Amino acid sequence: IVISGVTQDKNQAKITIIGVPDRPGIAAKIFQSLADRSINVDMIIQSASVGGVTDVSFSVSESDPPKAIEAVEGLKEDIGFKDVAWDSNDAKVSAVGIGMRSHAGVAAKMFKALADKGINIQMISTSEIKISCVVERKFAEEAVRAIHDAFELGKPKVQAEGDRG
Fold it and tell me: How do residues 143-154 score in pLDDT, each as one tens digit?
């Protein structure tokens, strides 16, 4: 079994810090400020640096954007980023399974299942046993079904003849 389950969390919000100077220590300042306010950060993405600046996006619980934005805005003068944007209409869908470690193409199959349903992926996070994607909240249940179907979860296993299981 490659994937053993699919989960969803509809209580996600995404915050993006735009135009962050690409220097050592900046990410530490940002995430320390969030930690100081007891804000748990889930997924983090940093874009490639262009002209010495980058964008940093992260997801938090949908109840945390006001205090997360306050924390980040408090660093604007010190860090010198351009702007902060946020969206609270997000959900995280995850495919989980220990079999991912030994099977190539699991992410591609998951991403294709979402694409085939017209579901855009906003953020991606992976580990040895989990692939998570942030999508628009309104597509969360459809995304779960698409991934479920792509990996044929819930289908009965056919036993070989003579196998008493």
Answer: 999 999 999 887
How far is CA 2 from each of CA 133, 139, 151, rounded to the nearest angstrom?
A: 18, 24, 8
Amino acid letter, 139 = F
Q: Which domain holds residue 17?
A: 11-88
Q: Are residues 66 and 125 in the same domain?
A: no
Q: How far apart are the first and last CA of the chain?
A: 16
Residues 48 and 70 in one domain: yes
Enumerate residues 6+ apart whose C-beta is below 8 A from 105.
none
The verdict on 76 and 15 lying in the same domain is: yes
85/130 Cα distance (integer angstroms): 27
131 and 78, same structural domain?
no
Digit-coded pLDDT (tens) for 5-45: 999 999 999 999 999 999 999 999 999 999 999 999 999 99
Side-chain half-sphere CA neighbours of 123 within 13 A: 27
